[in-house]
Amino acid sequence: MVAIARVADGEECILMERVLTPETMPLAEIDAQLRRAKTAPIEEIGSFRRIMRMSRVPQPFRRLGWWLAGRTGRWHATNFGNYGVTSAAAQGGGELHAIGPGPFVLSYGLAEANGTIGVVLRWDHRVTDAAPIARVLTRLEQVMNGEIVAELRGSRQIEAKPVRAVVK
């Protein structure tokens, strides 16, 4: 799930766009999906329609619905995803310490002059321990400096950064 800032009925809001199987998609396709979610009418985006429909339900039933969705595996994955991604970098902000309905929220800051980007991964300790999170962050660094750089090189020049090893 990716947080998308939109204006709905004259009010600023955050809507979550679900990206299915992002690991199988080229970056350009993910970018196109997120750009469409930022610009297309809200009614044309399925996940936005679902959120807006739920927001019109009376509060006690809405809370019950979110509670049930958060505790039922399939409903949880459909409505909240497995993890969330958010950032204020496009607005000039640094990395966020965001919280969300899912067990994992990844946020990132502005790109530094040396090409590095600060990343924060918040997680629920009831779901996992810190050791797997450390391995995930190291693997993320490897992917960003490896496969992602290789894919971006196809469209423009990107300098590869050294990658730290994953300790198992």
Task: Please describe what this structure looks like.
This protein is of the alpha+beta class and 168 residues long. It has a domain at 1-82. Helix content is 40%, strand content 20%. It is built from five helices and five strands. It has a three-stranded mixed β-sheet with strand order 3-4-5, with no helix packed on it. α3 (59-71) crosses α4. The radius of gyration is 18 Å and the shape is globular. The chain starts with a strand and ends in a 15-residue tail after the last helix. The model has no long low-confidence stretch (mean pLDDT 80).
Ordered list of secondary-structure elements with their pairings:
Elements: E1 2-8, E2 11-17, H1 27-39, H2 46-55, H3 59-71, H4 73-80, E3 84-87, E4 104-111, E5 117-123, H5 130-153
Parallel strand pairs: 3-4
Antiparallel strand pairs: 1-2, 4-5
Helix pairs in contact: 3-4
